[in-house]
Every structure is written in C-alpha cells, then in structure tokens.
Amino acid sequence: MPTVAELTDLYGNFMLGPHPGPGVCEVCFTFTESHARCFICAQQNSSLDAVAPISYSIASGQLHHALAGYKRLGGEVARRLQVELAAVLWRFLVGHEACVARAAGTSAFDLVTTVPSGSRARDEDHPLRRIVSELARPTRTRYERLLTRSDVTVQDRTFDARKYDVVRALGGESVLLIDDTWTTGSGAQSAAAALRQAGAGPVAAVVIGRHVKRDWRENERRLRALAQPFDWSSCAWHGC
Amino acid sequence: MADRTEAAALVALLRSGRHSWSEYAAHVEEAGSAVAVFERERSAGPAQLFGDDGATSELDQIATEIDAWEAEGMRLQTVLDPGYPDNLRGVHDRPPFVFLAGALAPADARAIAVVGSRVASQHGVDAARAIAEHLVDCGYTVVSGLAAGIDHAAHTAALARGGRTLAVIGTGLRRSYPPQHADLQRRIASEGAVISQFWPDAPPSRRSFPMRNGVMSGLSLATVVVEASLTSGSRIQARLALEHGRPVFLLESVLEHEWARECAARPGARVIGSPDEITTIVERLTAPGALVA
Question: ipTM of this predicted complex?
Fold first, then answer.
C-alpha cells in the first residue's frame, strides 16, 4: 500500500505553499500589488471564515495538470492521481486542520463537504467526492453531501448563493468545505453562502490549488521566492 | 474514420504554429476534440476567406499523409487516442502526439526508465545490465533513449532477457541517432516499440534530446540514473522526473557529481545499493488499494 508520506513527498517537488503578508490577498492568498485584497475578493464580503489553499497551482504546471486530470483523464492514470491528491489532502489536514479551524473561529469542524461542480451533469459522479468521502481518512468519517447544484441558471464564475441547494437544515454546525481549485472563488463562496443560509456555523474552505499564472505581473518573482521543496510543517494559517 | 480526421486536425493545428505545442495539447484535451479546436480557430481567423471547402481539403490531404506514415510503419497517436501512452498523459508537459514504430503492450504501463552517460565505464554498463535484467524479471518494461553507453546496455540486456523495452528517440522515426544504432532501433521496433515526439524527418538537435528525456520520464513510473556526466541528459531527466512527481533512483557512483548530490536531497529521490530497492518502492507506490498513514 502506498503511504501518505511517500506519495506526498513526491508532490513536494512542485507544490508551493502560500503565506500571508503584504502583497498577498487576505482572503484567497493570490498575489496583489499592494492591496489587502485581490480585485475579485474586494468585490464582496467573504462568506468564508477562512480560506486555506494548500499550494499555488501554476497554470500548465504539474499540480494544475493533476487537478484537471484526476477528473478528466479516466483510467488508471486518473485513479492514481485521485490517490495522490487524497494523500495531499490527508497530510495537510493531519498537520493543519487545527490551524484552519482556529482561523475560522472554531476548534474543529463538525462536518466536511465538497463544493459541487458548476455543471449538474459533471456533479453526478464527481471524483472529488471519492477523494473526500472514501480515500482521505481525516475527512471520510465526517463527510456529508450537503450541497447539490441547483437548477438555477447562473453565469459561470460568478458569486450566487442560489447556485447550490443545501440538502437539509443545519443547526449551527461548523463546516469544512473542500474544493480542488480556487480560481475566482465563486464556487466556494457561493457554497459557503448557501450553507450559512441553511443555518451553518463557521465555514472554512481548504482548496488544494490556488490557481495562478506565472506570467502575470510580478508572479514569476513572487513564486520564485517561495520555499522549495514544499514545507509540510507549515501552512497559510500556521501560527495565526 | 473519425479518429483520423481528429488526428489530421491536430496536425493542422500544430503546423499553423498559432499556439505552442503544449498549449495545443491542453486545448485539444480540454475540448475532447481537435476538430472542434480547429474549427474554432478557422472561424475566428482570416483563413475563413478560403471557405469551409479549403479546410476540408486540407484535413483530407493530411489524412492521406497519416495513412502514408502508417503504411511506412509509423503510427501517429494523439492525446485523444486511446493508444496514447497512459503514463505520459499524467505529466504536464506531455507532447500533443507521439509516433510509434512497433506496438505498445498493456504491460508497458509498468515501465521504468534506465538512463546514463554515453561514455560509460564497464562498471556502469554492468550495473545497467543488472538493473534491466531485474526489471524484466519483475515484469517491468525497460525504457531508455537509444544512446550509446548506458542506454545501449539497458536496451540490449532487456531484449536478451526476453523482456519488453521501449526506445524514446531524439529524432524523427525515419532517422537513427547515433546512426550505428539503426539496427538496434529496428530490433526494438519489432520486439517492443520506438517512440518519437517529432515529425518523421526531424534531425537530432540540441533541443530535441532534453525534450525526449521529458517523454522518457513521462512514460515511466520512475527513472533510474546509472552513471552520468556533468552535462548528461540524465541530469535533465532526473530533474524532470521529480517535476513530474515521479521517483528518481540514483546509483551511488553518480554521487560524485554535485548535481546528483543535490538531486538526492530532494524528496522522492533515493540513492540505491541494489536493483530490488527500485521495484520494492515502485510496487508500493503504485499498488492499488487504500492509502495508509
């Protein structure tokens, strides 16, 4: 059996961990020029009490390819990517779920769920649910499919709580939302807003990859400055 | 044949040079169709002036070329084809197509690359042979780059042991480099497969060899560096394999080089003393079944 440590060590060669600081968006950790929030996160109040990207995902890089391929490629190669990404999530949560919970104002998360796909058809059998509800030990016992894609038509990549239906009323439980990638955050933000309306307590999101483009403004320089190989003992919220 | 039209559309896109090859690999994979990407680009561009008939006859003409390549023993496999190597799909810098001489077997999913210097010592050649034999005995396919020295030793030992071997070459399939390995190239094509990510007539170049190291890594579950020099392609392949998230095994003798000592310190790289360490670790990493803490 592959061990979590062995599989994730390999990913450490291309993962890059975000850290808060000047020039980093306080919500989603993308690079900004000097503002506290990036352009998109400045548009509205965040519905999430904390967002923790495990790594930056550089456009066309290996993590980006894995995050697209685990759901697109099919066959043995997709199966292997699913196991590897589950190991990444597992190792991160063992080390840092407490950091994320603290940042979200709670001590631990009662429930874990996933952000549904933007398309209803794709959401029917989504491999992210397999990762969170079967493969990753830290999440599988608390996993519940709380959200489904509603039949409301909303524009792609826009924030809209009506995008998702919550399957049952909540009574103040804290919820950890998992998604593979944060690009604009519209999926995770819409999901968090829907959960709140249904009665959730604190809601935080852990995403595997914060999508960034290498050739955008100063990104190349900013990415170069990050620790390599990936430091599993630290996270975006470590020591906060 | 619909697949051939898809392949023809991919060739047309690559020849248009409008985007890089890696961008086309991603676009086509994302759309699930090269024809769709081709039509999108044609309807947006000035080529529209030629009308639909121009585009159709262009694809027909390329389809005829693809048939001729195939008749010559060079099978084009694009990222959309089920015959494109599965392991290679998993790496970010996969080429949009490969040409195959010979045939891939399902067992080639269990492939391990053995690479090293062109100017190898007897000790290095012996080590490469022993590793290739062990890999064959454990049911692995031996991948290498058809170069002199370590590559030659790995390919020939695998064949002599009755195993599968794949050669990933830095030229088009109509060429052989070095020329004296033309016979070995033919033999590998008849017993295993020769793989090229270049057009059939592409000459060897300074850029093509490191590119083929990336494909060698992508095809393989792991890369073993047997003996290497300061400037060797093995150094490039070790770096690319780690960037692919694939393990790298270094023989102790390689550690005389500073790059190899730095590589050995990376997560996922290991210095090994015997061939069975390679297979033990690769077996464990790729075993089906649940993850363990």
Answer: 0.94
